Amino acid sequence: MGSGECSYGLAYLLLNNRLDYFWVLLIFATLSELCVALSATRTIHTKYGDISGVIVTPDNRHLDAVEVFKGIPYASPPVGSLRFMPPVTGALWSGVKVADRFSPVCPQRLPDISNETLALKKMPRGRLEYLKRLLPYLKNQSEDCLYLNIYAPAQEEEEENKRKEEEEEEEKEEEGKEEEEEEVEEMKEKEEEEEDEEEGEKEKEKEREEK
């Protein structure tokens, strides 16, 4: 993935969030030269399977790295008997799914900008230039398009280790609480047994006295 794909992905996310077009265009133009360094992400465990993506490091000390996961299926492909039906939970997968490529977009009619003179009568030049960069990514269309592109702040290794340690401590605390609860239950059971034994002894003594 080059800088062009990186800028497209971020702008694509903003478009889906329905931000004002001018600001999307401005952000897109600003980011197009920033995303240059890539590396593999940590492995994320989900109930559907494990995924890994890429870490995008902007060439700007004021911007933090971002974890990018592309083309993550969130439902079964809406084709065949599932066409026009509500989304159905997707299939599970084994191993680690490398989420580093965009999946097809849903079928849609794209603006015709082949005739620039005519296109400029309908839109500003800024939008035309933006569409020139964006439309190539929208040509791969399919009904099989129920996928997510996820962008999240990259977690530093120290923060990740700290998070794991905290999770381990929480697990230990929970285990400790469970052990304490078990001990309390055992003590209650012993007390009940002792009380039963005492009552049994008392009944035996009464029977002896009556005899």
UniProtKB/TrEMBL annotation:
Biased composition (Basic and acidic residues): 201-211
Region: Disordered, residue numbers: 155-211
Keywords: Glycoprotein, Membrane, Signal, Transmembrane, Transmembrane helix
Transmembrane segments: 21-40
Domain named Carboxylesterase type B: residues: 42-162
Biased composition (Acidic residues): 166-200
Record keyword Transmembrane helix present: yes
InterPro entries with a match to the protein in the record: AB_hydrolase_fold (IPR029058), CarbesteraseB (IPR002018), Carboxylesterase_B_CS (IPR019819), Neuroligin/BSAL (IPR051093)
Signal peptide: none
Keyword Membrane listed: yes
Superkingdom of origin organism: Eukaryota
Family of the protein in this entry: Belongs to the type-B carboxylesterase/lipase family.
Protein name according to UniProt: Carboxylesterase type B domain-containing protein
